Structure formats: structure tokens, C-alpha cells
Amino acid sequence: MEPETTALITDPMGVFGFLAAIVAGVFWISELPRCRKLFEVVPPVIYVYFLPMLATTAGITPSASPLYDWTVPYLLLFALLMLMVSVDVMSIARLGATALFMVAAGTVGIVIGGPISLLIFQGALPADAWTGFAALSGSWIGGTANMVAISESVGTSPDAMGPVIVVDTVVGYGWMGVLIALVGFQGRFDRRTRARTETVEETNSRLADMDRERRPTTLRDAVVMIGLGMACAVGAQRLGNTFPSMGDPPIISGTTWAILIVVTGGLALSFTRLRELEKVGASGLGYTALYLLLAGIGAQADLRAVLDAPVYLAAGAVWIAIHVAVLLIAARIVRAPLFFVATGSMANIGGAASAPVVAGVYHRAMAPIGLLMAVAGYILGIYAALLCAWLLGLVGG
Fold first, then answer.
1. pTM of the model
2. What mean pLDDT, rounded, does the chain reach?
């Protein structure tokens, strides 16, 4: 696709440098003491997406560039590999049945809630809205990486992504605020449901044995991670293109095969010594690639798409309500305390950035369990979100 000649910056490397500067600026400013409160309310990921969108709307960057055709497949696969290799699967398994059951229940709520919500609001939404819902299901079962992965799998247009980001922010973080506000009711909830609160203490004792040592990244570490990540990304992309597309509308494409290869292969590698790469910043490098990718996606979007957000917001609220209903039923079945309801929900909706915050609000020492539950949700995410995307395709395709 040829770049637009009306943009101020059209050279692909110039566009990349501009977007990289935006990402760097956002994260540098987010750590300034006077700005931290602002970024707690509106997280950096939102600026990373919307500032490039504003730049394109203002004519600074193009909405189409050869750069975007490269960054989407390769930076995404690189990011996913780094994130998967760093997963401590055994620590997640030791969290206990209640924690894992609540994460899975939250995932089920997202999978069934999306198609139901789309069915209710379909008449007031564009024909390709299901692709935006599919992308949102990825975000709500694992975070930004899954959102990008699913959007690529189903071919979500840049215009359809604008309202999705709004819903992800307003509804997702609005629900996080509700969960934090409910902390004062956890005693009453636990007594009324006769919750087994001893599971929290058992999990807390397991966390005491976990050691997540980190050390500074050396030149050797950086070269190994970048070389391994990019080689695997290119290899997975080439291999994925040899498999046939599946579904009508297509859900399993060449890109999807490549994503599944990287996610599954990365999880397998996490059982080897390569997981030691997390101690030198593998996941941080993965998130760096992910945010650069998200900036490129934002630069392709049309700001006018946000005008469709009111209906999307209503649909998102219904979707969350179904998710919560499933969680409450699950909590009743296993007599889970409100702590696991809240953290299990945020492990899906908010991911690794938000789940530890909510967990720490309910029990100060339990923030690490929020992180591990979020990682468990992330592992489920790519597979469960593909199932949700398939169901959404049946409803809206």
C-alpha cells in the first residue's frame, strides 16, 4: 500500500522514529511525580494509541505506510514470544484450584457475553462491528497483546478499533473502579456466601516461596533476546502462511497460525532454561515491541470512528454485566471470597497491569497473586478469544 503524500512525514523510517518518540515520551512523562496520578486514571496505553491517531488526523503521519505492513506481523510475534517465554507456568499451577477456577469463570463470562451483547445491539452497529468486538474480547481475556493478535486474525479495520479502545478504557477501567469501591463489602460478602477464606491464606504462603530475581540486562542478554525473538517471528510467519485459512468469515488465517505457533512454542520454551531471560527483562522487551506496534495501529485509525462509541459503550456494559454474573455464580459454587471474584475479573479485564492493583487493595500482601492470576488469564486468552471471535463471527459475520 502506497503512503499518503499529504502527510508531513511519509518516509517509513521517519514515521517509525516519530511514533517511537511518542511512545518514549508517554512513558517518560508517566513516571514524573507530578503526572503519576493522571496516568493512574488514564493509563499510558491509551496515549500510545490516541496520540498517533491525532497525529494522523492532523496530517503529520500517513494513515497508510509500508511501515505498518511490517510492524504488525513481526513486532506482534516478537512481543508474544518474549511474553510467553517469561511465563512461570508451574507457579501459576500452584496458585490453587479456587484462584484458577475464578480466572477461568471470568474468561467464560467474556466468551459468552460478547456474542450475546452483539446480538442485542447489532442493529445499531456497523456491519463489521463483530471484528471490533473480537478485538475487544482479546483485550478482555489477556490484555493488549491479545487484542492486537485477535484484531489481526479477524481483520479488524483501523476505523473499527477506535470505538473498541474507548470501550476498553471507559468500561474496563470503570469496572475496575467499582471493584475497588467494593473492598469495604468483602467481609459482608464472604459471610453471606460462607466463603472459604482459608484459600487466600494458603495461596499467600505459596507466594512466600517464589523468587523473581532480576538483574541488569547485559549486551549479551539483549542480543540473544532480539536475535531469538526476531528469528522466531520470521520463522513463524513463514510457517503460518503454509497452513490454510479456516472459517467463514475467516477466523484462522496465516497470521493466526503464526500467532498460535509462537504462543504455544513460547509456552513450551518457558519450561526450559530460556525462562531465565525474564530475569534480564524479556517481558519488558516484549511490551516495548507491543507498544511500538500499538502506536502504529493508532496511526492508521480515523478519529471520527470514536463517534460510534456510545452504542459500543452500552454494548460493553452489557458484556461486563454477563461476565460478572458468571463470576458470581462460580463464586457461589466454590464458595470463593470476594477477593477471588474481584481479582479473577481483573485478571481478565485489566490484565497484568490492573489485577495486582485490585488484589493489593483487598489484601495488601496479595498483589503478586493478582499478577500470577493475570498471567494465567493471558495463557487462556489467545485460545479463548479465538473461540469468542468465532462465535462473534457467527452472530455478525
1. 0.70
2. 82
